[in-house]
């Protein structure tokens, strides 16, 4: 497995097609607490759907359009963190992620998100990284704040969730800001 080790407990890894079953099991176990903010969860019905999603994400990775990484905690698949859309023209990307409920409250997502931002700036040479989340998704808003990302504004009715349109907060950080931001956080 090609991986990026964060510490002795945590690593990010390029997904393998053989991870489809573990990813489906993680999503299925957490379906109730993931599906509100991630409506795509309602469309995941079997292992093959996740294996197909991994295959599509690997193609986008090969094309330089996205970077989808699995989060492994003590050897267990805990979630995903992604550069969902890498825009080469504007040298920017947006971050997406999810974490299984049993892995929350340990700082895993903050560390994983910090790592993918490092990768985005150091390996991909990107200029700007964004993170958008529903206004009422306090854990996601807190990840952005813990990373020192700048709050750039609220987009009215930007996200479609299970129960309709919701406002979205947008946070961002620039490559030249990142080293100084990290010294503070």
Automatic annotation (TrEMBL):
Q: Which PROSITE patterns match?
A: GNAT
GO MF term (any one): protein-N-terminal-alanine acetyltransferase activity
What the entry lists under SUPFAM superfamilies is as follows: Acyl-CoA N-acyltransferases (Nat)
What PANTHER family would the database entry show? RIBOSOMAL N-ACETYLTRANSFERASE YDAF-RELATED, RIBOSOMAL-PROTEIN-SERINE ACETYLTRANSFERASE
Annotated protein name in UniProt: Ribosomal-protein-serine acetyltransferase
| Alphabetical list of InterPro entries matching this protein | Acyl_CoA_acyltransferase, GNAT_dom, Ribosomal_N-acetyltransferase
Q: Which organism is it from?
A: Lactobacillus delbrueckii subsp. bulgaricus
Q: Which residues form the N-acetyltransferase domain?
A: 10-176
Q: Which GO terms describe its cellular component?
A: cytoplasm
């Amino acid at each position: 497995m090609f991986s990026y080790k964060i510490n002795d407990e945590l690593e990010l890894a390029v997904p393998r097609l053989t991870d489809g079953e573990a990813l489906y099991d993680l999503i299925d176990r957490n379906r109730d607490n993931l599906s509100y903010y991630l409506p795509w969860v309602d469309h995941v019905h079997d292992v093959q759907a996740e294996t197909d999603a991994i295959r599509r994400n690997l193609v986008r990775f090969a094309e330089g359009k996205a970077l989808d990484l699995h989060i492994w905690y003590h050897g267990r698949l805990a979630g995903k963190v992604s550069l969902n859309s890498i825009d080469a023209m504007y040298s920017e990307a947006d971050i997406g992620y999810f974490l299984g409920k049993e892995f929350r409250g340990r700082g895993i997502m903050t560390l994983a998100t910090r790592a993918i931002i490092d990768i985005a700036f150091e390996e991909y040479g990107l200029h700007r990284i964004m993170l958008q989340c529903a206004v009422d998704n306090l854990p996601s808003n807190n990840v952005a704040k813990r990373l020192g990302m700048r709050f750039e504004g609220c987009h009215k009715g930007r996200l479609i969730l299970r129960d309709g349109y919701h406002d979205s907060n947008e946070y961002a950080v620039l490559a030249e800001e990142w080293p100084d931001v990290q010294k503070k956080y």
